[in-house]
Amino acid sequence: MTKRSLLAIAIASLTSQAALAAPFLPMDARGLAMGNTGVASAARAHAPAYNPSLLSQGSEDDDFALLFPQLGANVSDEEELVDEAQLISDEIFPAFEDAIEGSGISDGLDNNLDTLTTRISQLETAINSGNAAQIKTANDNLKAALTLVDGDLDLTQSSITDLTESLGNISGSPLSARLGVGGALAIPSKKFAAAVSVSGSANISGRVNFADSDLDLLNSYVPAAQGYIDAAENVTSEIDSATADNNVLPSEVAALKLAVEDLQDYSYTSGDGTVIFDNGELSDAASNANLSSTAEIVAVAIADVGVSFSREFDIAGEAVAIGITPKLQMITTYHYADEVDGFEDVEEDDLEDSKEDYSNVNLDIGASWRFGGEKKWIVGVVGKNLLGGEFDYADVTVTPKDSNGNPNGLPYTIDGGSVSLEPQFRAGLAYDGDWVNAAIDLDLMENDPIAFESATQFLAFGAEFDVFGTVQLRAGYRTNLSNSGSDIVSVGLGLSPFGVHFDIAAMANIDNPESEAGVALETGFYF
Known about the structure:
This is Conjugal transfer protein TraF. The protein is an alpha+beta fold.
């Protein structure tokens, strides 16, 4: 039957190939702790990542600031893929395997089908003898074998139903993750501010697609076996009639021979063309099925080097800060695919062969305005990656393999495509107090995913409590307006003695922490 490695490999590919949409999510610890807000609330060296105009919204006493390193990661399991995969691996597939191959309480369908084939051969020998007693004994043995196989079918069908339902649940569902690293040096000023920032992110989109043909194959075993049983039961009924008077006529012997020969010629082909039974026996193709389902990965690595400039302007009597960040981007795309049957590890050479490198120039522009009696309120708006960009990923060749990883079929190609770096727009409102800072951010448009995941349009809230300028306590909330069930809560802690900052943050899905979680940390120096 299908090998245990078939599913174990599929699960491994699901849990090792991460997937990611392209949201507006800088990977800084302060912003993540405050729900990923920052368009109106980012401070000094954080400004280039959110809104370059905020370089001109600080105090006149602010001097330069340095952030390095900034590290962050988040993982999102949108469809609870890991839990389903674990259930399949731990319970559902072992139950299917036991039904087919046997366990401590059952010989298994495969073994009992072998016994059934043996009993049919013995019946053929008895019929050839023409002895009614021998024929009746062989027929009784065949009936007993049929009873065992018939009992196996209920258990097998139940396990296959559970398995195919679970495979259908995880087919095409992505596992999402994001890794980021960055740093910035900023010199804030109302008259002329500047910053240099660097960042890198790994954006990987992956999924496992279980082919309909594979599900058809799994669903063929029981109908194939049931057809064999029905044909065998018809033969036993004919024998009961022929031997009712404990005597078998020559004409009856001839008819029984033909019936057994027809049974031994029994064949069954699944919807995908795989022969399940051939000449009355389970075929090699069914015993060691080759599945055509694939694991596919599209990966995009983006490195940004930006120089930000900002200053405050008098517009209609109001001080409005405007900032700009021209940046050079280095983009690398990868495309990898392999069949899950026989899949073990991502072949580094194959991944490298699909590598495509690009360079791109892009632009961020932001504006912000302080208002209120004490100028404690700030409103901001930013457009990021305004020049956009589209980058191809290569076609990939898939070589079919057996369950041991050995090539056993003709290679075929999965077409490549392109990923887009689309402009992003966000607005924010913040309160900048002496002890309390609060912020709300909203994506002004939906952000498309890189490849396989859900689109994003975030609404985020956050607050920071500054205790004597030395300890900062932070909390936040974020929801995706484009996808229900993805509400996030976040917390963080900052320590800032003598201008040295150390910040950590963590976030998780409010309803199911296992479906999305993330962490970030950074070290900074503010003077």
